[in-house]
Amino acid sequence: MPWVPSVLSTHRLSLMLAIVATVLAGCGFQLRGTSPVPAALQPLAVDCSDTLPGRFCQSVRDQLTLGGVELAEAAQADFVLRLRDYQQDRRASAITAQAAAAEYILRHTVTLELFTADRVPLIASTELNASETYRYDETNVLAKQREEEELRQQLGDRLAQQVIFRLAPMTRERIDAAIEAHAASQDAAESP
After folding, report:
1. What's the pTM?
2. What is the domain-level CATH number for residue 115?
3. Residue 173: C-alpha distances to residues 44, 93, 170, 176 (Å)
C-alpha cells in the first residue's frame, strides 16, 4: 500500500519547514547571489569609470540587480555608487633555489564612494582589496597562465561582492543621520 500523507503529517512538514526557514533567517543566512543592499538605496546609479575592467563593473551591476536593487542613470538616481582606481598587482612571494618565482600573490584593489544625488557623502572614499596566492610551474606555463586568468576573474568577483556588502549597513536611519550630520557641518562652516 503506497504511503499517503495525512493532513497531520502535511501540517508537521509545513511546521518543520517554517521552523527551518526561521532559524536560517535568524542566523543571517542568505541565498548566494542575493543582495544585502537595503531598499533605502534605491534608485542607485553605478558610476564605473572606463579604466575599470568591464567584467568587474558588470559583476557589481548584476549582483545589485539580482538583489532587487533598482539601477538608474546618475541623473535619475537618488544615490550614486562611484568605483575608481581598480588596480591589479602580481608579485613573487616565493623563490626557488634557481632564483625563479615559485609562487605568486595576485592582489586587486578598487576604491568606492557612495553619495546622494545632492553630493552628500554616505561612504567616504574606501579602498577594498582581494588577494590570492598560487604556485607557479615553469614546465607548465600555459596551464599556469589559464589558472592566473581564472584567479583574476575570481578576485574581480570577490571585489564586487565586497562592494555590495559595504552597502549593506546603509539603512534609511543611517542615511538620514548622515544627511543631518552633513547639513550640520555645512551650517557650522558657514556661521562665523
Report:
1. 0.70
2. 3.30.160.150
3. 17, 45, 8, 5
